[in-house]
């Protein structure tokens, strides 16, 4: 399946302040965002997500590199000539205009006819279910309602690309979950390319078609939520997306299967073709839900002492200290809590689900 | 239980009496505390106004002051002159042209200060914290100097041998000096200069509160610079523009020093005309009626302006 590219970011860097000494917010970033996809920029605060988004919108100019929209270079175009709209984190609704006037603003600036403006505004009000609030001023709306208006205002001109900068971060948890579903629905209904910024990995996983994980001005990995969760490219991604256990070791044989020595004379074997050469240090990552506990003397398993058991409702976190001295968390269904040997201080056998152990760097 | 109830009620009414007494005490204290302010208001503001009002209905004294013979003459004289020969009334063209000039120059001054004040206030409001204080401080410096001195400084700039003309001639832009002094333009320049800070300060206050992210929202929604200014910035900072306009228009209308120094004897404004009645004109009642008339113009203008601006900003 081939994909058409909506936005192409080509080797973009952004330095705030003097080029030599300034702050490098983005460092040679390249990414193709496909048409009609829900694309998410995910990363910790300060990693450059907003800067990249503002560059697509036209509010910042790249220090280096170019940005293309539907095949044409728009790097030098001012924001008002880009068929791209933004849902601002602060919503930035015009306080002197009503909900309907806010939504109509972009259409008016584009010089659309009166009837079209009226029809589209009504359509957008219906899309975000704000028909009853059309005559209100933004100050008379709740946070969630303002959010919907900001969304309707940005969607009304039917942009090629909609940019959303942490649009849900100001909402409470319940409303956020609800808006996540609605946003996804709107993206599917309208077929508009969404570029969504968040620092919330769960939000990114549930909503996105593809995710770009960013850190310190770099894109570390681009892939589907499943790719990123199950096959993190490095230690940062493995740690940032979901929870991960990390084990340090040394390669005994590159394999496949690779054999890795952990501390305390313990040994693991991984079915991978891209292990570093023998003698190299490696870091292994494994999700807590793929850590399996069994009898301490089960063949092929590591052994560790249970230091803590924490009850979380549907599942339990079992903290262990391996013989190598490393700490590990296993997530097990609460139904197993009565199982024999599962108690603080007990020695348990630790093994891993097939394919769950991954090499994520040295 | 049964005995506790009446006790509680008694207690409540007791405290009710005490509360009322304390309330009366408070009221008396408030009156005492506000007495100086009230006295100042009565003596300082209402008193003179009442005297002026009374004088406007009297007959002019022979040399100055008034004679205590009530008449409407002074009010009639505002608009009409009595023909010396046949005693008929004709429109007082000279007076009307003075009123018109005053209103026109004041409106123009307000417009000019808006045009120059907006970018200035914008500039200051967008400076980082420390620099902002510095620029605001610069704006207020002219207030430290006497108005007359500042007006003479303007005179030095624009008179025929002044800085402006000297430089323009030196640069070869003009061959002979521009006659700016003693024209309406001179008065306009002077008033715009003098009242500009009164426009900049309220504009600054409004712009400083302005959320600049709205400008980006405007650009994002296809508004160009001019449209962002007209459709986003101006409507939101409008209260500042209204406040500044009032602060500039009102004193402009009653300006005395500036038109006197820069306009010369011919280009009078209402202020100068009133002064004339109390001086050479020896017509105190006319001066008094003109003063009240000026007050009325200002009040009507204010009412109109405030009504117009509040209607524009509320949508529902
Ligand atoms: N206008 C600016 N001037 C200077 N530094 C900036 C500016 N905007 C952002 N930065 C810096 O660039 C880095 C990335 O910021 P940003 O893109 O806002 O991160 P994120 O949105 O991922 O939290 C941060 O270190 C931030 O302080
Ligand atoms: Mg951000």
TrEMBL record, chain A:
Q: Which InterPro entries match?
A: AAA+_ATPase, ABC_SmlMolc_Importer, ABC_transporter-like_ATP-bd, ABC_transporter-like_CS, Mo/tungstate-bd_C_term_dom, P-loop_NTPase, PotA-like, PotA_ATP-bd
| Family matches, as PROSITE patterns | ABC_TRANSPORTER_1 (PS00211), ABC_TRANSPORTER_2 (PS50893)
Does this UniProt record's set of keywords contain Transport?
yes
Catalysed reactions listed for this entry: ATP + H2O + polyamine-[polyamine-binding protein]Side 1 = ADP + phosphate + polyamineSide 2 + [polyamine-binding protein]Side 1
Which keywords annotate this record?
ATP-binding, Cell membrane, Membrane, Nucleotide-binding, Translocase, Transport
E.C. numbers: 7.6.2.11
Q: Where is the ABC transporter domain?
A: 7-241
GO molecular function (one) = ABC-type putrescine transporter activity
Question: Which SMART domains does the annotation name?
Answer: AAA (SM00382)
GO CC annotation: what is one?
Answer: ATP-binding cassette (ABC) transporter complex
Q: Which SUPFAM superfamilies match?
A: MOP-like, P-loop containing nucleoside triphosphate hydrolases
Give the EC class as a word. translocase
The answer to whether UniProt assigns keyword Translocase to this entry is yes
Pfam families in alphabetical order: ABC_tran, TOBE_2
Q: Which PANTHER family would you find in this protein's record?
A: SPERMIDINE/PUTRESCINE IMPORT ATP-BINDING PROTEIN POTA, SPERMIDINE_PUTRESCINE IMPORT ATP-BINDING PROTEIN POTA
Q: What does this protein do?
A: Part of the ABC transporter complex PotABCD involved in spermidine/putrescine import. Responsible for energy coupling to the transport system.
The subunit structure is:
The complex is composed of two ATP-binding proteins (PotA), two transmembrane proteins (PotB and PotC) and a solute-binding protein (PotD).
Its family remark reads: Belongs to the ABC transporter superfamily. Spermidine/putrescine importer (TC 3.A.1.11.1) family.
Which protein are we looking at? Spermidine/putrescine import ATP-binding protein PotA
From TrEMBL, chain B:
Basic and acidic residues bias spans: 11-21
Q: How does it sit in the membrane?
A: Multi-pass membrane protein
The ABC transmembrane type-1 domain sits at 99-305
A GO BP entry: transmembrane transport
Q: Where is it found, in Gene Ontology cellular component terms? A: plasma membrane
* TM regions (residue ranges): 31-58, 105-125, 134-155, 186-207, 228-250, 286-306
Q: Where in the cell is it found?
A: Cell membrane
Q: Region Disordered: which residues?
A: 1-21
Keyword set, alphabetical order: Cell membrane, Membrane, Transmembrane, Transmembrane helix, Transport
Which protein family is it in? Belongs to the binding-protein-dependent transport system permease family. CysTW subfamily.
Q: Name it.
A: ABC-type spermidine/putrescine transport system permease subunit I
Source organism per entry reads Hoeflea marina
Source taxonomy: Bacteria, Pseudomonadati, Pseudomonadota, Alphaproteobacteria, Hyphomicrobiales
